[in-house]
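Hi support team,

I've been running sequence recovery on a batch of backbones for a student project. Most finish fine, but this one hangs at about 90% for roughly twenty minutes before it completes. I'm not sure whether the input is malformed or the queue is just slow. I've pasted the structure tokens below so you can try to reproduce it. Let me know if you need the job ID as well.

Thanks,
M.K.
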């Protein structure tokens, strides 16, 4: 097969089996961001407590220099979701998710997982076989989201402290735990058929301060 291997989530496989189309999914469209989206992304993140807010300039860079590894979700012209991330420079087989933001109006639609899998299926990321992010120990929604993604990828999860409260945050904030999901087999995931759509996922759309 030529071209990148597409990612089909179990939700999408189940929908296809039941005859559901993408238009039935509340008309949310996923696309790469552009610099003109920077202000809307900044406003979205400001609405998504407890996400750390970035400067407008940071969001503009994400929507321009890093557009190939970020995704924006919109419905009826409104920005309702955003995921920022990048390939780790020294380990390009690893993709690091920085932030996951989902507007309140789009919660409960598994949008966080859909956006992350959309990025992983893009051209240019074929060598990626690990997904990384950081989560604090008390962030149960984020843990639920990335546990669901690990199940989707049929991959193991390793955890270790990446940024320590005392050593890196000067005693303020919380330690950030690195979640390393993988390695996963892209071909095996693409070959997943409807038989793998077992029990429904229990992950919720969250705002992740990774």
């Amino acid at each position: 097969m030529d071209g990148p291997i597409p990612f089909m989530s179990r939700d999408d496989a189940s929908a296809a089996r039941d005859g559901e189309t993408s238009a039935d999914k509340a008309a949310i469209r996923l696309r790469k961001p552009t610099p003109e989206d920077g202000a809307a992304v900044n406003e979205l993140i400001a609405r998504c407590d407890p996400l750390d807010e970035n400067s407008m300039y940071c969001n503009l860079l994400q929507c321009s220099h890093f557009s190939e590894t970020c995704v924006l979700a919109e419905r009826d012209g409104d920005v309702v979701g955003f995921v920022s991330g990048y390939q780790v420079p020294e380990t390009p087989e690893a993709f690091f998710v920085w932030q996951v933001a989902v507007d309140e109006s789009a919660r409960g639609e598994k949008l966080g997982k859909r956006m992350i899998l959309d990025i992983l299926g893009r051209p240019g990321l074929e060598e990626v076989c690990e997904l990384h992010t950081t989560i604090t120990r008390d962030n149960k929604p984020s843990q639920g989201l990335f546990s669901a993604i690990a199940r989707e990828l049929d991959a193991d999860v390793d955890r270790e402290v990446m940024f320590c409260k005392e050593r890196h945050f000067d005693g303020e904030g919380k330690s950030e735990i690195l979640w390393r999901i993988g390695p996963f087999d892209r071909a095996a995931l693409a070959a997943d058929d409807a038989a793998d759509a077992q029990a429904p996922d229990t992950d919720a759309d969250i705002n992740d301060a990774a």
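--
Follow-up from support: It reproduced on our side and the slowdown came from queue contention, not your input. The radius of gyration is 17 Å. No action needed from you.
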